[in-house]
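Q: Got a minute? One more chain.
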Amino acid sequence: ALDPLLQGLTQGGAQLLDPDIAVNTLNNYFFTSISSFLIISLGWWITDRIVEPRVSSTPIDGDEEDLPELHDLRPEERKGLRWSLFAMLLGIVILAITLVPDTSPWRDANGELVTFQAPIMQSIVALIFFLFLIPGIVFGYVAGTLKGIKDVIDGMTHSMHQMAYYLVIMFFIAQFVYAFGASNLGTLLALAGAEALKGLQGYPSILIVGIVLLTGFVNLFVGSASAKWGLLAPIFVPMLMTLGVSPDLTQAAYRVGDSSTNIITPLMPYFPLVVVYCQRYVKSTGIGTLAAMMLPYSLWFLSTWTIFLLVYYAIGIPLGFASSYVYPAP
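A: Always. Here it is, folded:
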């Protein structure tokens, strides 16, 4: 999860000023949980009132065989879903049983399950793959859509065929990301912005807004949330602590800025994947098309969520577990 990762970076930045400070892993849990209702509602409104009217007249020219079908489930499909659900639950139960013993091969040398060195943590991707692959195969055989192993392979091949555009565009994006990272332009932009914000040290609320806006801007060039915060936390967190602003509030401001502009930057790892899904319906969809379509979401999320954070801050609702708004904590 992102919260523990950011918390570690926040704590590292805070300890530059206060070596004894401890930041709770769930220090933004309440804020992000409540924010989810705001973002869901706002996203629905933007879709219904802004984006959907714009794209409603766009002709769909995707391959009909690739487009999803909407129809009532047939009896064999309902049966297939029941058996696939049973297969998934059975897999989860078997996995849970093998995790329980102290000598479980899923544990690390110290008997822990949640450390990075634990085999269970190293196998997450493979486990997710099989927990979805096996129920999918069960559904196919029960529903009659799969007749043999060749159909399974053909289905996987067809899915990878749709990923061809993604693989090609990711090759060129990877070259750009590497070159951009090697140039350190993202670092220079972040540091220059941080220096500019230092002039607002007498105005905590304005400074919080500045952090949100700077983070949203830097996010266009540095897609990784942890990389950005690893760069900015040692600057922002101690700086705001000297003004009496807690690391918890600083991290919350960062989350707002980082989350709002993800969908309009091609440097986001999943951006090309979204383009691929859009091309299933409209073949001419490109990076610019998607960025333009998603721009209303970013602008509304950024402005509304920032105002929400300021109101949340003014009311004094707890940000999360063992969190505070001020430093030192009361």
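A: Residues 287-315 form the longest helix (29 residues).
Q: Perfect, thanks.
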